[in-house]
């Protein structure tokens, strides 16, 4: 189980960060997205290969336009 933007999410063992992000509608083509795992930013180019460990805390932020 991981924590994804404050919610507990059950994923298969060895799931990638990209698989976790799919739960909230984010894919490798999503623009304006920053992701951190356990407080460390993970570059987009690593999302697919980054394997999540049990208890990982994932925060995904999306830039919004406006004022």
Description:
With 67 residues, the protein is mostly beta strands. The chain has one domain: Beta-grasp domain (Ubiquitin-like (UB roll), Roll), CATH 3.10.20.30. Helix content is 9%, strand content 28%. It is built from one helix and five strands. The protein has a five-stranded mixed sheet with strand order 2-1-5-3-4. Strand 3 (33-37) and strand 4 form a beta hairpin. The longest helix has 6 residues, at 17-22.
Structural key phrases:
five-stranded mixed sheet, 1 helix, 9% helix
What order do the helices and strands come in, and which of them pair?
Blueprint: E1 2-4, E2 7-9, H1 17-22, E3 33-37, E4 40-41, E5 57-62
Parallel strand pairs: 1-5
Antiparallel strand pairs: 1-2, 3-4, 3-5
Summarize the structure.
With 67 residues, this protein is mainly β. The chain is 9% helix and 28% strand.
Number of helices: 1
Q: By helix and strand content, what is the structural category?
A: mainly beta
* Largest sheet report: 5 strands, mixed
Count the domains.
1
CATH level 1 class label: Alpha Beta
For the record, what is the CATH homologous superfamily label?
Beta-grasp domain
The CATH architecture assignment turns out to be Roll
Helices and strands, in order, run as EEHEEE
Strand order of the largest sheet: 2-1-5-3-4
